[in-house]
Structure formats: C-alpha cells, structure tokens
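ok trying this again, last paste got cut off
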Amino acid sequence: MEAMVGEDYLHRFAEETDWFNDMVLGSLLPGGAWKRLPRPIRSWLRNYIGGTLVYFVSGFLWCFFIYHWKRNVYLPKDAIPSNNAMLLQIIVAMKAMPWYCALPTLSEYMVESGWTRCFSSITEISWAAYIIYLVLYLVIVEFGIYWMHRELHDIKPLYKHLHATHHIYNKQNTLSPFAGLAFHPLDGILQAVPHVIALFLVPTHFMTHILLLFCEAVWTANIHDCIHGKLWPVMGAGYHTIHHTTYRHNYGHYTVWMDWIFGTLRDPEEDIKKA
C-alpha cells in the first residue's frame, strides 16, 4: 500500500512535466509526433526550445531597450557592443545550449524517480513553510554558485580550459545581455549544479525549481548589460562588470552577501568615488 501511495505521489511530478511538455512542444510542434519520443528526450527537447526562446526574447528585448530605444541614456555610445560581438556571443551560447539542457532533464528524472526532497504542491505544507524552504534553497544556491565560480577562477586548468571562454568579454563594449549564457558548456553546467544539489538538501517545490532554472537566462542577461541598478544587496551589473574587469571580485549570483562574507566584494560606488 505504501509503495502504491509512493508511486501515485511520484506520478504527480510526471504529470507536471507532461503539462510543461504540452505547453511548449504542443504549441510549437503540432501533430503530437513528439509524444512518441522517449520521456527524457521530450524533456530535453522542451528545455532546449524553452531555454532558447527565453535567451533570445530576453536578450533581444533588453538590447533593443538599452541600445536603441534608450540609446545614450544608460550607456555612452562607445560602451555599446558591436553587432559582431553580440553575434559571436550568440554563437557560443547556442553551441552550449544543447548541453545546458541536459541538467534540468536529469534533475526532472531524479525528481520523478523519488530521489530528491521535492514536493508537488504548496498545499502539502503551508505558505510559511514554503517561504522558509525557498529561502534555504536560495542560500544553498548562492553559496554553491559563489564557490563554484570562485574555484573556476582559482583552479588554473579550470579557468584556462573552461571559464576563460566567458572572460574574453572583459570590457563594457564587449559585454551585452547575450554574453549571459556564452560559456563553455561544462562551465555553464557546473555553475548551475547547486540548483540540483539543493533538491537533495531541502524540501523544494518542483515547479518553483523549474521556473528558477529558466529565470537564470533572464538574470544572466541582466547582469551583463553594464547598467548598475543600485539595489543593494542585489548583484547587479555594476558589480558583475567589475568581476569581468578585475577577475578577482564579485563572484556571487543573485546577491553580494557571499562576496561580503568571504572578502571578495568590490563596490562599484566606491570605485566611482575613487575615480
């Protein structure tokens, strides 16, 4: 009986991923032929199409806003990257995208198999518990990404063979929203791994986990646009631009807290005052 209850509960996660598949694949690939594909392939294909759409929609809209509609408002003309620079970033990101999508596909398989601590519905706990678990999840992600990113700099072979691909964009006029996913494939996967590790450490709402993974594309576009939002403690583009120019500061993800705790924070406001 317990096994049946367990199987019934795990089936809820499968139903959720089926709903995601219907929403993405059913809308863009009419006819239903994709339903005959093996389940992991369906998940990968949906993640690939969805991730690519999020990357291009967020990238193009943001570039249009800051480089054309608000031209010379947020950035001086000489800080705007060339079309060729952005095209090269898109090429690097698109080469890596098929590999990036393997991680959420794997995480979905582990969730559906019952290996993680995911739960299906917030009604199973409470909103208060959901918020507490979400905060814990985000703290684990912040801590994990900080140290993964920092070690990708500190361990020289990892930097040379993986992370250096991303750090060729080291000036304002080479950084753009499209640089956000322009990584070596393994580099991008390693920096997203803390999202999956957190599933084994803290109860996590499955749909929230999936949405946060897709939010990565929007977030990384934002922190590579060189526009400092000045919203402490958010790791805005002002902080991240310093990371790209000094290589030794501001390794954090959503916030600056880990850099503050571990002594690698460099404040763009202080740099402006010194200048």
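PB: full thing came through this time. Residues 1-5 have pLDDT under 50 and may be disordered.
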